[in-house]
Fold this protein.
Amino acid sequence: MSPAKKPVTISAEDARQGRIVLRTRWQRAVFVAGLVGAVVVAALVAGSRL
């Protein structure tokens, strides 16, 4: 068995900068999917008000 990976620690100073840290392809895909989902929901809400 391989040893467990230690969790990534980000300092409070770095966390306060508002920079989004997307280290893996999976994290980037989830982030982009969330943005696209928000746009789709906004379009559906705007379309339903017509």
